[in-house]
Amino acid sequence: MIAYLSGTIKYKGANYLTILTNGVGYKVSLPTDMHAKFKLNDPISTYIYTHVKDDAIDLYGFTSPLEIAFFELLISVSGIGPKTALAIFSTGKLPVIKDAVVRGNVEFFTSVPRLGRKNAQKIIIELRSKLGSLEDLDLSPESNESKEIVGALKSFGFERDEAKDALKFIKDVEGSTSDKIRQALRYLGKK
């Protein structure tokens, strides 16, 4: 299974890139906003979802493992394949898609090519219940930094709840992750 690729763009198709890695070119389909960012010979690193069918192996590229997790949720809905799920990612970024599910925004999904009202409703109904199992999946842009801070605070012996409380305190603090960890430690030391 291919999970991550790093290389150079050798060819740019309508909705895919050929990524050259160690002399091998991989055809990787991408959401349109990600696809538009790159030119020939640009370096690229992308997380990969590998879809295996009887007659083909297709690769789909994303900017984060969180996007892949949500992509997998989308294709778990009956009637939604990888191409339709990729079209959904091309219509909106991950927080927008999640918000459309939570709010029951059928119009967002029907604006996706090849996706009718019935399948849009099915996505909303099926994913609302599955999103409950992903409560810890923070889809905000700061989620990786937040996880790193919580992990660091836990390694200092603080409980997860204390670390989350410190995150709220330092949410407006500017600076590097280490600066934020120091601020969080000061905050927790005063409690």
Q: Proportion of β residues?
A: 15-25%
Question: What is the number of helices?
Answer: 9
Overall spatial form: globular
Average pLDDT level: 87
What's the CATH class of the largest domain, please? Mainly Alpha
Structural class: alpha+beta
Radius of gyration in whole Å, from Cα? 20 Å
What percentage of residues falls in helices of 4 or more residues? Answer: 40-55%
Oligomer: single chain
Distance between the termini: 47 Å
What series of H and E elements makes up the topology?
A: EEEHEEHHHHHHHH
Proper CATH architecture of the largest domain: Orthogonal Bundle
Instruction: Indicate the CATH topology of the largest domain.
Output: DNA polymerase, domain 1
- Provide the low-confidence segments as ranges: 133-139
What count of domains describes the coordinates? Answer: 3
Organism: Candidatus Gottesmanbacteria bacterium RIFCSPHIGHO2_02_FULL_40_13
Domain Helix-hairpin-helix DNA-binding motif class: 72-91, 107-126
GO molecular function: ATP binding; four-way junction DNA binding; four-way junction helicase activity
Pfam families: HHH_5, RuvA_N
What is the topological layout?
Blueprint: E1 4-12, E2 16-21, E3 24-29, H1 32-36, E4 43-52, E5 57-62, H2 65-75, H3 82-91, H4 94-103, H5 106-110, H6 117-131, H7 143-155, H8 160-170, H9 177-190
Parallel strand pairs: 3-5
Antiparallel strand pairs: 1-2, 1-4, 2-3, 4-5
Helix pairs in contact: 7-8, 7-9, 8-9
